[in-house]
Design a protein that fits this description.
Pfam families: HD. It comes from Winogradskya humida. This is Metal-dependent phosphohydrolase, HD subdomain protein. It is a single chain. The protein has one domain: Hypothetical protein af1432. Helix content is about 65%, strand content about 0%. Helix 1 packs parallel to helix 3 and helix 3 crosses helix 8. The chain is globular and about 40 Å long. The model has no long low-confidence stretch (mean pLDDT about 95).
Length: about 190
């Protein structure tokens, strides 16, 4: 079984019934990963697997810490997922910034942020996909997150602080697509 097939099975088993909107989101993020494959070369399969699994930590049965990137990473470790996949899920979408705000950055520390093309592309996929799984612009996604959580929520503070880093990752991903002659469609 391919890594991508395995990832879809795990994601569907954990998210589809208890969190159908989250399941729609991760499917949209995974679809976006296919369009960004040219930015990551031989790591396209890893990107798509990380995209469909990035929010697995939201599954009610998997919650350990209440911080979904960390809970997803712990779960993936427990099922012997590839190390890079575990680390990408742990650090998706600038998770370290939110972990610091929550006071749990030490728990995230054992997971490495690879800071490369796959990481950037995963962040780009997530932050250009709506909660319902449809494509969107980064600025609109940030606005949606702020509106959903409200002005006083920790997640709003996080997204405001992370916006420059997230935007830079998205920019690098588009630049990699451009310089490699790859095309992506929204």
């Amino acid at each position: 079984m391919s890594l991508v097939t395995w990832a879809y099975e795990i994601s569907e088993q954990t998210l589809a019934v208890p969190l159908p909107r989250r399941w729609a989101h991760v499917q949209g993020v995974a679809l976006k990963a296919r369009t960004f494959a040219g930015a990551v070369g031989d790591d396209a399969e890893l990107l798509e697997a990380a995209a469909v699994l990035h929010d697995v930590g939201y599954a009610p049965d998997l919650a350990r810490t209440g911080f979904h990137p960390l809970d997803g990473a712990y779960f993936l470790q427990s099922v012997d997922a590839p190390r890079r996949l575990v680390h990408l899920v742990a650090h998706h979408s600038c998770a370290i910034r939110e972990a610091r705000l929550r006071g749990i950055n030490e728990e995230l520390a054992p997971f490495l942020d690879e800071e490369g093309p796959v990481r950037d592309a995963l962040w780009a996929c997530d932050l250009t996909t709506t909660p319902d799984g449809t494509p969107t612009e980064f600025v609109d996604r940030v606005a949606e997150i702020k509106a959903r959580y409200g002005p006083d929520d920790l997640v709003t503070t996080f997204i405001e602080e992370a916006t420059p880093d997230l935007g830079a990752a998205i920019g690098r991903t588009y630049e990699r697509l451009r310089t490699r002659g790859a095309h992506q469609s929204m």
